[in-house]
Design goal:
single chain, mainly beta, Jelly Rolls, six-stranded mixed sheet, five-stranded mixed sheet, 13 strands, globular
């Protein structure tokens, strides 16, 4: 299915009740990962990778993110780039966060901007991606794919600051989480946070349609 077509579908958010997983993976150190109390990012590029502008998710409101999007790189495997290598591994009952930014003034007819981030599942477990963002008036979306780009956790779409994928039991293997915002591109960089959770994610109920 073409990416642009996904934006025309009427999809439902999934609102899930869950307890906060206790474990995190904050000891990874590839590009953009957290190896101590400070985030490491690549220099260069017009994009910024610091969450926390007015009204947006903040990397400073709590523990630092596990991984911060590097600047100056194409990190979308659907648009000629490669998913950013995070070094994140998920076992049962893990929770990790990724801080990124939808760039200003760019994009194409399908997306204002889009990013992807690799992660590994080390043991079969339920996985869900939660996207938090400052509303920009357009549709934001999040999905989980296998490394070969096969969709495994259905797109969550929203305009109001939070989107969720279906919780999905995943076998061990390599995956990536994909974040995108529909056009138009924001006037200023728009920060977002992705949280990947695994384990017992609780009961789920279908929320209201957002398109």
């Amino acid at each position: 299915m073409r990416l642009a077509g996904l934006l025309l579908l009427t999809l439902s958010l999934l609102a899930c009740k869950s307890s906060e997983p206790a474990a995190t993976n904050a000891d990874q150190t590839p590009d953009g990962a957290i190896g101590s109390d400070a985030a490491s990012t690549d220099a260069g590029g017009d994009d910024t990778s610091t969450a926390g502008t007015d009204g947006g998710p903040s990397a400073d409101s709590g523990p630092p993110p596990t991984y911060v999007e590097p600047t100056g790189k194409s990190s979308d495997p659907f648009l000629g780039g490669s998913a950013a290598s995070t070094g994140i591994s998920l076992g049962p009952s893990d929770s990790v966060t990724i801080a990124g930014t939808i760039a200003s003034g760019g994009g194409n007819p399908a997306w204002a901007d889009s990013d992807a981030y690799t992660f590994k599942v080390t043991a079969e477990t339920n996985v869900q991606a939660e996207l938090l963002f400052a509303p920009t008036g357009n549709v934001w979306s999040v999905a989980i794919h296998r490394a070969d780009r096969t969709l495994v956790a259905w797109w969550g779409m929203a305009t109001e600051g939070r989107a969720l994928t279906h919780p999905k039991k995943l076998p061990p293997g390599d995956y990536f989480v994909h974040v995108a915002a529909a056009p138009p591109a924001p006037a200023t960089p728009a920060p977002y946070t992705v949280r990947l959770r695994s384990g017992d994610l609780g009961d789920c109920a279908t929320g209201k349609a957002v398109l």
